Each structure stands twice: as structure tokens, then as C-alpha cells.
Amino acid sequence: MTVGAPETTDLIQLLTPEGELVERPDYPLDLSGAEIRSLYRDLVITRRFDLEAVALTRQGELGLWPSLLGQEAAQVGSARALNATDMVFPTYREHGVAWCRGLDPLHLLGMFRGVANAGWDPAAHNFHLYTIVIGSQTLHATGYAMGIQRDGVLGTPSAAAAVAYFGDGATSQGDVNEAFVWASVFNAPVVFFCQNNQWAISEPLEKQSRIPLYRRAQGFGFPGLRVDGNDVFACLAVTRKAMEAARTGQGPTLVEAYTYRMGAHTTTDDPTRYRLAAELESWKLKDPIERVKAYLVKSEQADAAFFEEVDAEAKQYAADLRRRCLALPDPQPLDIFQNVYAEPHPLLAEEQQQFAAYLASFEDAS
Amino acid sequence: MTERKSFKLPDVGEGLTEAEIVRWHVAPGDEIEMNQIVVEIETAKAIVELPSPYEGVVAELHVAEGETVDVGVPIISVDVAGEPGAAPAAPPAPEAAALKEDLVPSPAADPGTHIGPETGPDVPAKSPGEPARVPVLVGYGVRPGATKRRPRRRPQPVDEPARRPAGQAARPVADQPTRRAVDRPARGVVALATPPVRKLAKDLGIDLAALSGTGPRGSVTREDVRAAADRTTAAPAAPVAAGTVREQRIPVRGVRRSTAAAVTRSAFTAPHVTEFLQVDATETVELVRRLRELPEFAEVKVSPLLLVARALLVAVRRHPMINARWTDDEIIIPEYVNLGIAVATERGLVVPNIKDAQNLSLPELATALGGLAETARAGRSSLENLTGGTISITNVGVFGVDAGTPILTPGESANLAFGQIRELPWVRRGELAIRRVTTLSLSFDHRVVDGELGSAVLRDVGAMVEDPARMLAWS
């Protein structure tokens, strides 16, 4: 297998790993210095709190954590292309998207600490619950998009679209292919944002597909694009265009963000058992954060003080998140009854009473 | 003003119960930062580095490298500087307030102006030094004795109907909770048992109360009952103290576990056939002696295994199909030979392989063989060494046996076993002679290799062992 060498002719890239801008008139992107600095800040803080969560897992404070290391640009770039009214359907690794949607990462930690069953209101930030089942959220997104379509808002100023995040492994799932079929034939306003991080746990991409993933879209009848997933500019520009197409009634798009999972699949996985160090090394040279930093320095849009400030902020944020995570209260056994029905329910009330009596039957119960 | 905090071994892998301390990165007296890597541990799943949850000075390492410890056991103590202005730890809020309200503003529609979440209001800190959460055990089972049943209040209001008078003598002993065991003088522990085991005991006429169990929390198992039944029926000549454990239990892990998985997979996926051939290896033994005297071999070990390995390489050249592998859709014939050698190590059986063995000169092959075994025995074989093999040799002779039926290394189609060489009566040129004889056995995957091919390869190797000059003739 090639070591991280995509077919460069197909790859949409606006910023090279060396921090040089690439001319792409078909993907215009006019960002101010402040906007680029804020993208940089999102990338750094996302990476930093993700690392903190990994450390918390290693210290026994979280049960599990799927690290997004290496995929920051794909997530931040695409999420920053969304409007507040667009609806996001994530997998379990979309910490950077959650951050950009304004969801407090404490919710994510609470879920992986096992003190909440998901723990946030999807409508609050138009960010759906993390989906652990591989690929099923693509169907939810398609259904949601068909709902938007039926609201009759497409093409109007209040138009919105749905975006489904998933990985390369999910493309082998029936659900994802069914979602493609439905989205295609109903022209649903949904963007399928696939982060191809090359590994479905230990299964390499060549065991998933004989053709580049973005070319699958053609068979379903909608456009597919491959973007440099480590290029935050390109991810932003491409997702913006795809979302705008969806909102104006032009149907779905598959965006394959070509990136790399720098860490393990989750904290219980050991990638050194199945992949070669050389592959990891080659991707280190394509780091999503370093290239933005290089560009900001070269174009004199940021100085050393700015980078220090962001680093310090990220460190402070991570320390604060750690403190807040450790302070999360454990849920009470009776809490489970609160989320069953919206209205009081006699049978449930009876069951709750029985369970309370059972809990009180222990000698150490207060 | 410092406070000593200990870091307990966490469950880092969804239900792991123990880990081995591989290497400490710090020593007592070292100053460490929050999240600094302090130790490498190896679990059943992976080698992982643990970051310190404290900032301070290392006071003590409680576990030596190489030791295996249970989850929850303190492994390192750190002296943490007291924070002068820090508020005393408050009890946790009764409700998940932090989870119920969002602490962050909604994102703006304009991607250019959006900024991520801001730090929320302070939540009172629960004492952060106490990671006292019980690990959730998923997938690896609960270690016997790792959990304790919470004692119930009596009388139990829900499941203890009044129809059974309290203190009735005929009540089954096993029903009584362990905390009342002090009432029983001699044995001290009351038997716990599952209903099927109780039924079995009743059927066999065994008094559960007379047994001490070997199951979880001392419960009486089916085996305990059967053993007790055997004791009562067996001759009284061999009395065994009740409850004496006469079995040793070795946890299956590491190389042993992966070897077991590999041989099982191989045995039940590849249809194995094994053929045998007894040959006169006298000439090979003589050649080994002469090679040892040559300066080219002064630094390396020359053994009959070396010549058998070379013979197999020559045979592969003559019959490339023996080096092929089956993939359900196609048969793949490599143009190279990655020669695997089964090595018995302390941790179990491993089969590292020599890459491109067909290109090596005889001294190079000897060097590679020596290095391979040494590396494997030291437990340092890399993933690269252990994967990608195309054909293997198993030297069962070192164990003092004549022959074996080797199981194929997964992904390979042939495995040659080489038995011990010993003096036997042998008919040579029409006369009885004492010769050095060995047995070669070749297992092959019958999907790839027909009997005719397998026999030809075995015959060729045998011919070369009998007359090593053929190796030159055929290579």
C-alpha cells in the first residue's frame, strides 16, 4: 500500500503542508487575518482538550476516548462552514465539530466518563448526539434533510441543510449506502462528510474500497470530491460550497476529506500492532496545524506573542476542563426514570417506587 | 506544605483487570508535571504510557518493573504542593448541574466571527486526588473476589415473604448471607452455590455445608461437588483433605494466547496433510563437522538445521508452489522466500522469519538463523519479523523426539518438521550398518499443495539430507 499518497490531481488543496497558498478559482476563499487566527485557535484548542481527554482516560477518569488527533482541520474546517440552522449528525469522534458548534466539551467527557447517557440537547446547538453505531447517522441526516425539503425552505433565506459525518470504515456499511440512495433519488439537502483517516480500527482502506471513496458518489448519482483533510482552508471552502448547493436545492454531495488518524482508534487500541511507523512519520509532515502557523508567520498575520497566547489559552482551557470533568457528579440510580416519558406515567411511577424500596433495602443506604 | 497522593493503576482498556509494569520513566525525587508520562504498562491489549494525574515530586514507586499488578493498586506516590489559596473541596452538587445547562454561547452563523466555547462558571471540585471509581468491567469478566455484595437490611421487605419463619433450622445453609458466618464455629465460611449445583449435591447426597468452595467468593462449584462425591466413593486409601486444591491454574495471556489463536485458526481453516520420510543423515552430520572448520563459519553456529533450511530453500526453487498461499479467490506464489523458524521461548512459541532467505549465502543464512532465535528468545522479535512468512521449519529434534505433525503457520502452505538425529541400524548397499538417521515430516495445506507436490518436496529435501552434494547440483 502506498504511504499516504493520494492522487494529487483529484485532491482539492488551498494550503500546502509548507504553508503556501494554492490558486483554486473554483473554490474562492477570502479570509481575513482575524478569521484565519480564529481557525488556528480552534485547531489548537481542539487538539489540546483532546489530548487532555486521552490523559484522563489513561488516569482512569474516562472509560474510553476516541482521539481526533490529526483530523482537526477536517473537523474545524467543515464545521466552520456551517450555519447555525444547519443540523450536524456526528460519529463519536467529532470533538472539533462539537467545539465549533459551541457545545461544551464537558458533555463529551461526561458521556465517556459514564455519568451521562449522551447528555446534551441536540436542538441546543443543532448538533445531534454522538452515534456509536457505525454509519447509522447518515440515514438520520438524510431523513432530517428530507424534512427540511418538505418544509419548503430550500432556496429561501431560511434554508438549511444537514451534514453527516462518518469515516472510511462506515462506507462499507449498508446504512451509508442506503443513505446515499435515498439522498440521491430524493435530491435531499445533505452533505456526506467522510473523514477518510485511512484506518477502520485495524482495517486499512484497501480492504474497504478498490476505488477512491469520493468516486463512489458518481455511481449513486451525485457529485463527490476529495479534499485535503489536513488543510483547514480547503475543508472550509469545499464544505461551504457543498452546503450552499444543498440549501439551494441542488442535492447531496459526498466530500471525502483525505486525512490520517495519528493516534489509536480509541484508547483501548494499539495501532503499532498493525501499521508501520513510516506511514505515521510521513503524515506528521502534513500536520494540519503547522501549515496554518507557517502561513500566518509568512504572511505576517500573526506574531510569536499570538501563538504563545493561544497555547497558554489552550493549556488553561484543558486544565479547567480536567477540573470540571473530575467534579462531574455521578448520576443517581433513580435518575433513569426521569428520561422515559415527557408526562407522568402510572406504571413508571410504580416501578420507580419499587426500585426506590429496593435501593433502601441495603444496610448502607442512607 | 505538601500532600502525598497515590496514583492507582487505572483500567485503561474497557474491563482489563491487571497490567504489567514495563518501564518507569521517573524515579523518586524527580519533579513531574501534570500529564507527564511516568510509566509504560502492558495490558492484554496493548502497551500504553500512563500520564501522571498530579504535579509534584515523585515520592515512591510501589511496583517494580516486570511485576504484574491488579487494577486499583497504587503504583506511584507523588508529593503534591498544597495550593495556598485553594478553596477546601466541596461536596459534589447533588444534581448534574453542569450537564444540564450549557455553559457556552451558541455559535454565530458567520463562520468568520465564531469563537469556541468559553470557560463556564466554576463547579466545586470534588477532591481530585481520589480516582476511587470502580472500573466498569466489560468484555473481560469480573475477577473472582473483585466485587463484594452489599449487605441487605433485614428483614428484606421486598423479596423475603413472611411464610418462612426466621431462624428455622431446616433452612438451607447456602441461603444465609456470609456476614452471619461467625455463627458457625469450625469452618467459618458458609457455602454459596448456584441452584444447579445444589441440585447436583442433593442428587449425589453431598452436604454443601461440608465443602469449602473454589468458585467466586468461595462458592461451591459443580467440580467441588463432583470431587467430594468421588472422595466418598473412592477407596479410603487416599484421603485428601476436604477442599484441597489439586489443580494449578495458569492465566492464558500474551504469546500463549496469540499462539493458541493462531494454531487453532490454522488447524481449522487449512486442511492439513502430513507426510513422513526417514532418511540417513550421516553425510549431513559429516558436512556440518567440516563446515565448522572453515574460517567463513568461525563466528556462527553451524547445525544440521542450517543444512535442512538450505535444502528446503533449494526445494522451493524447484517447486515454487510449495511456497504459495491460499486466499479463497486466488493462490499467490511469492518470488521470494521468507523462511519461518519456530522458536520455543519462555513466553511461548513464536515463528519469526528470515526475509528473502533465498538470496542469502550459507554463512549469511547461518548468521540470520542464530540472530532470529536469539532475538525471539529475548522477546524482542518485531512485528515485521513475525509477519509475512511464506514457509516454515519446526525443529522438533531439539526436544529429543523423532517426528511431529506441525501445524501450518497461518497464511503459509507448508511446514517442515525436522526430528532428532540418532544412530539406528540401517540397510546400506545391501548391508546392515549403524547410521545417523532422522525423520522429516512435511505438513501442507491440501487446498494449495497436492499429494504429488508435497511428496516431491519431501523427497527432494530428504535426498539433499542424504547426499548434500545434491544441494549444489540443484541450486
Automatic annotation (TrEMBL), chain A:
Residues 43-318 form the Dehydrogenase E1 component domain. The keyword Cell wall biogenesis/degradation does not apply. GO terms for biological process: branched-chain amino acid catabolic process. Keywords: Oxidoreductase, Pyruvate, Thiamine pyrophosphate. GO terms for molecular function: magnesium ion binding; oxidoreductase activity, acting on the aldehyde or oxo group of donors, disulfide as acceptor. CDD domains: TPP_E1_PDC_ADC_BCADC. InterPro entries: Alpha-ketoacid_DH_E1_comp, DH_E1, PdhA/BkdA, THDP-binding. Its cofactor is thiamine diphosphate. It comes from the Bacteria. Gene3D superfamilies: 3.40.50.970. This is Pyruvate dehydrogenase (Acetyl-transferring) E1 component subunit alpha.
From TrEMBL, chain B:
Residues 146-155 have a biased composition (Basic residues). It holds the Pfam family Biotin_lipoyl. It comes from the Bacteria. Residues 104-183 are annotated as: Disordered. Residues 164-174 have a biased composition (Low complexity). This is Dihydrolipoamide acetyltransferase component of pyruvate dehydrogenase complex. GO terms for molecular function: acetyltransferase activity; lipoic acid binding. One of its GO terms (cellular component) is cytoplasm. Coiled coil: none annotated. Its cofactor is (R)-lipoate. Keywords: Acyltransferase, Lipoyl, Transferase. Residues 192-229 form the Peripheral subunit-binding (PSBD) domain. Residues 4-79 form the Lipoyl-binding domain.
